[in-house]
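Repro:
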Amino acid sequence: MIYYLTNRGSRPCILFGYPGVAALDAAGRIVQHPAVRSEHPGTSGTVRPGLVRLGPGGSVQFLVTSVDTVPNPDCATSFPATTLQVYPAGQTTALRLHHRMMICDLEVGAVTTR
């Protein structure tokens, strides 16, 4: 799934790399493990990290994928989650999106321009 981050501030910012992503259960605990950073999230082409300048009101995107073939060697079953937690690249405060999902082996791609 593609997610977006928008600069809501009045100054430009620069992002580099990958957001920190984890799926959380109803108690706020990380489900399975945090997303693994990947230059090939899911079935996408290569997405290499680079500097992204984000002006006020500008947006970037990133891809989060989960294995959808369960059972597999890593997941006997999918894991239920209620929230997606995202730390924008270089930030220490998480954003949380309430979203019910079943996940297995999350991967996250680098932030890129839209």
